[in-house]
Design a protein that fits this description.
Blueprint lengths: L6 H15 L2 H17 L16 E4 L3 E4 H5 L4 E5 L8 H11 L1 H6 L3 E6 L3 H11 L4 E4 L4 H5 L3 E3 L2 H9 L4 H5 L5 E3 L2 E5 L5 E6 L9 H16 L1
Parallel strand pairs: 3-4, 4-5
Antiparallel strand pairs: 1-2, 1-5, 3-8, 6-7, 8-9
Length: about 220
Amino acid sequence: MASAQSLNQILADFQAKRAETMPADKLKINVDQRRRLVETADRSAFVKAGDHIESFDLTEVDAGPLSLEAILKNGPLVLIFFRFAGCPACNIALPYYDQYLAPELRRLRSTLVGVSPQVPDRLRHIKERHNLDFLIATDTDNQLARRFGILYSFDEPSRRASIESGSPIGEVTGTGTWELPMPAAIVIDRTGTVRFADVSPDWLVRTEPGDIIATVREISERAAA
């Protein structure tokens, strides 16, 4: 499905506007943390195409328990890891995926699941806010994100800013920790094999829908053949 503007251009425009209004000290903390993650992320640990994924469970905010095996009975699985319901970039990316990714995945009989460590009662807000027409699920204790090698922890300036805000991130997510997943898009075929994996240490860079759709379409075409 074509779009007038790419997701990453929308995110870049958002950051440019925010840079005009955000206090300079807070902007620097944000920019420095993202730059540091890009520079230091252990990409060798990231989940990658060809990996075989063992069983895992998630908790959908409305439907409850989700298992890998149950999802794959219906077709390929697309996981979109995001930070938490109040993350500004996530509130841009998930509605975009709802518009430009979810409909085509439904046509291809693939299941789309947005994944965050935030507890279900709080995570539900982003699904309701945007009336998202795909699954939103909790990765309890970051278990799956840890297996996929995509976790990061707030650096010290970010921790101080989070505490000073009166809402430390561990309280916001309900996890009690400083860890969040890096944004990631992962496609798993019905054999449990990763066919596509894209991880972004910078949370203002996200996977474009077309890259995901192309992989799922290839899986479907091979299955049909």
